[in-house]
Specification:
Layout (H helix, E strand, L loop, with lengths): L1 E7 L2 E7 L5 E4 L5 H7 L2 H14 L3 E2 L4 E3 L9 E5 L3 H10 L12 E5 L10 E2 L9 E2 L2 E7 L15 E8 L2 E2 H6 L4 H4 L7 E7 L10 E6 L2 E7 L7 H9 L9 E3 L21 E6 L3 E7 L1
Parallel strand pairs: 6-16, 8-18
Antiparallel strand pairs: 1-2, 1-5, 1-13, 2-3, 3-4, 6-7, 9-12, 10-11, 10-16, 11-13, 14-15, 14-17, 17-18
Length: 288
């Protein structure tokens, strides 16, 4: 199932995309966080089948898609430098700021007041940011409370997957010697276009992902190349913290971001960024 949050006539609700992606069937939960926490995948499937049987659904052009989880309940948990090729290009840009111990995961958090929807704008924050960058990432969404789980059972805790563009202000990120501020400005978390439920994707995911800027391919890789895999990450994190339903984990980005070019190729107003993950879709946003 491909789940969405949408707005129609001023009302926000959740829905499931028709198989051809051309229409939306409404679901009973108005809020995706509530849906994830209270509705099982089996119940969700039955409701989606009933909605499909009731009619053709609402044409996609008649609704406005929002980010699948417009307002995450907690900061997004992020993996830094989790592809070897990106680790190398980041170290080449600034070795002091982008260094990691071998095999030790780099975690940081990303504050999200409101996630940017598919087709929405990425603010350039003129006067504050000069080095604006993009990062295509597969995001994992947990479906139940996780604490002290084993890697072998990690897949059963996942509700679904979506696409995140981990927009980054490189000058703030490196200038402050930490990543939180440079990753958490308003509008720095485009998300979508949908959540694909975990039953649709084999675990661990081995999905092609890519990013294009103004149609030019910049990033291209596969999630099978993660240095620290999803199961390993969940086992490590939950050994010391409780992760709640709806928790979003951004798994890292491959090489090809703006800082990796010589000279760097940062974003500017008017640029269109398209982040794609196989089996989920394309998240398209414009810098303003």
């Amino acid at each position: 199932m491909r789940l969405v949050t949408y707005q129609r006539d001023g009302a926000v609700s959740t829905g499931v995309l028709r198989r051809d992606g051309a229409a939306v069937y409404p679901l009973s939960c108005a809020d995706m966080n509530t849906l994830i926490e209270t509705v099982s995948l089996e119940q969700l499937r039955l409701e989606a089948e009933a909605a499909e049987a009731a009619g053709p659904g609402m044409p996609l052009e008649d609704v406005a898609l929002l980010a699948p989880i417009p307002r995450p309940r907690q900061d997004i948990v992020c993996l830094g430098m989790n592809y070897r090729d990106h680790l190398a290009e980041a170290a080449g840009y600034n070795a002091e700021a982008f260094t990691r111990e071998k095999a030790v995961a780099v975690y940081f958090s990303k504050r999200v007041t409101e996630a940017v929807p598919p087709g929405g704008d990425i603010p350039s924050h003129r006067g504050l940011v000069e080095r604006l960058d993009y990062e295509v990432e597969l995001a994992v969404i947990l479906g139940r409370t996780a604490r002290n789980i084993r890697a072998a059972e990690a897949g059963s805790y996942i509700f679904g997957y979506t696409v995140v563009n981990d927009v980054s202000a490189r000058d703030l990120q490196t200038g402050h010697k930490q990543w939180y501020f440079g990753k958490s400005l308003d509008g720095f978390t485009p998300m979508g276009p949908c959540i694909v439920t975990a039953d649709e994707i084999a675990f661990p995911p081995a999905l092609e992902l890519s990013a294009r800027v103004n149609g030019e391919l910049r990033q291209s890789s596969n999630t099978s190349l993660l240095i620290n895999g999803i199961a390993e990450v969940l086992e490590e994190l939950t050994a010391g913290m409780t992760l709640l339903p709806g928790t979003i984990i951004a798994t890292g980005t491959p090489a090809g971001v703006g800082l990796g070019f010589n000279p760097p190729r940062f974003l500017k107003p008017g640029d269109v960024v398209e982040c794609t993950v196989e089996g989920i879709g394309t998240l398209r946003n414009t810098v303003v």
